[in-house]
């Protein structure tokens, strides 16, 4: 440490001490942390800083961090009384009373004169004694359950009951998990899983391990020590899908405990925990990566390993993307991508029909998580090196493997795949493979052609050279070749998208292709893999409006697609959902501005055309028919996916369905609210906004008390407020505001949630919006929020919020003006300060007279409520009001005659009677 750093350290320490004394905990935390970064060596100064920062963490309620810092201080300076005292306090707050008691006793030994520690010991002693007694009882129970569970010769029913009781115990409390760990349950379960063959016993054993790891860092580390990380890979290596799911769950909850993640929405790893537990986290990563291409594990285990990596690779604090590249993880994934399902040889990697899809998603997730050009360059170099080795090999099979790898890259990190396809000779090689007589080469080449046509710039050369090749392959006697060639033709034929003016093939060709896909789809003897490819073809063809109209009337085809959607795994999920999206026109559409069309015509640019069968009436008919077929239930089922892209498509579909008010009740009835809330909190930003808009539409047309449970209402607030963003459309702003207005009328808890989520500021920003409907919705929302005492307090503060609403009482739009008057009436009825504020406004008299004389009876009643509240404040204000022409208006209203005027007349009389009682006016003899 040089001289300057010493000065910086002392200065930061002093600043931290000053901030701590003044109660600025965050400033103190920042100073102590910065000072710790300067000190590289463990010494007395560093121990003091750790101890001081622990005090800050205790004040902030971050007790785990306080425990960690006190432990670091005690590692340098053992038996430091202050560090022991602060760690004892932190342990007590997190319920670790035994540890707190031990530290408190040690603190008293180190500093017998400490007067603060004795009350702590007195308080903790009975708690610890009770814990000891409970643990003794618990130990007896555990011993009894162990006797039955781990004795193979015992009656199987008794064993199953005992192991289920152990599972219940592991769920009850962290204390139960700790006692089980101390009793050596992990080693016993390890032996049981090795020798026992009963499926129910084995599955419960895995569930117990998962429960012990859940949200418990200490227990997780002990499990990893007792089992060893390689055990998880061996445990995955089974054909029993339930056991695979159980082990996968254990690995995930173990990672969650080590990284600080949980099951809440938008959970992310804790940076401090990730650093502290980096050894264990890296151990899990290393074991997973090294097992990707292991020949000794089966295909199901391999898919699970890749799925675990995919699920966690994108977390920045975990930092697996960079680490995986450095560990040659990309090459291992690419080796799986290059594997051919049909090949049979001794060193073959065992894969499922979904393995390539899983690898493509994982590769995409890794690439997307690389933030620097240097790391992406390393990624590309690894891919180039892998492909180069296979392309230079004279063996034909190596080139086929290279093409299989390119296909997977085109399905995943598409930028990487496109850069490979763009290189000289690659497309020509793929097309040449398609012309051979080798069935495997034909199949792989077709799949690559399908994947390569995702980018329009690549379609032209393939259309020119490949269309006839694909037509010839469609005549093959092998269904596997025919269906792939058919999908290639479907993709080329739909390259115009929804633009009715672009037809790559002759008129009617897309309908013929759709019919061919349909035959494969509905035929009872068609293999599942062939059906998957038929769905892929239809996902492209249903962009054509004529195909949509014919397909929606085909009940057999729709039922077949629905059936696949309910049973299909990830490989065809995107294509299945895309068919529904295309039928509902729920895809992203570019807004067509008339001026831009004229400009495009003038500059002789292509102008897209919409097909007449894609008009609103046809789209709404298709949506209604799909709902009659039961698509809502299917969407709820499919929403369990982890793919963000599929989540976005599902959100678009729900939003398209909710456009029709008559279908919103059906969405609620079939569990759509819960699904929409999940979609609104996770996935892409576009997907979250689509789901939020669907929630808003339901909240508009159905009473929130009926359609939403209270908790669901609370969960909806944040997504709805997210739509009050300048980047969202005016329609999204409006629908969100109306839904919030309805929800604000339910109860105070929901109104408080809106306020606490900064909703008041967001809604207020639309009060002077030029768009009339937005301005009206904002004011109406404010009116319902005004029922909250919290909002009244905000209006009592020194600001112009009440003035803004009072001015809007004169708005040209009558509904806006009435809503504003209602909000002002609520404010002044509940706050004397608001009443006094009104009288400080420059034109309060003219505005109030105008409202009282308004032709609308609702407005008159609100104005009378305002007047009555002002009069009621005190005699001076009442005299001030009755010194104006307002008195004559009140008198006139008190004798008004006509239909529906009773409330007006009564309220005016009430105002005059109040003034009379206050001796501001005298009752006239008349």
List the helices and strands and how they pair.
Elements: H1 3-21, H2 25-38, H3 44-60, H4 63-76, H5 81-93, H6 97-110, H7 117-149, H8 156-172, H9 174-182, H10 185-195, H11 199-213, H12 217-227, H13 229-236, H14 241-259, H15 271-276, H16 278-291, H17 299-312, H18 320-326, H19 329-338, H20 355-368, H21 373-391, H22 396-411, H23 414-421, H24 426-434, H25 439-452, H26 456-474, H27 479-493, H28 509-522, H29 528-541, H30 545-552, H31 555-567, H32 570-583, H33 594-602, H34 616-629, H35 631-638, H36 644-658, H37 661-669, H38 672-681, H39 685-701, H40 704-707, H41 710-722, H42 730-744, H43 748-756, H44 759-764, H45 772-785, H46 789-796, H47 801-808, H48 814-830, H49 832-839, H50 844-852, H51 857-873, H52 875-882, H53 886-894, H54 902-917
Helix pairs in contact: 1-2, 2-3, 3-4, 3-5, 4-5, 5-6, 6-7, 7-8, 7-9, 8-9, 8-11, 10-11, 11-14, 14-16, 14-17, 16-17, 17-20, 19-20, 19-21, 19-22, 20-22, 21-22, 22-23, 22-25, 24-25, 25-26, 25-27, 26-27, 27-28, 27-29, 28-29, 29-32, 32-36, 36-38, 36-39, 38-39, 38-41, 39-41, 39-42, 41-42, ...
Can you walk through the features of this model?
Helix content is 74%, strand content 0%. The chain is mainly alpha-helical and 926 residues long. Among the domains are: 3-114, Tetratricopeptide repeat domain (Serine Threonine Protein Phosphatase 5, Tetratricopeptide repeat); 826-926. Mean pLDDT is 85; it is low at 1-6.
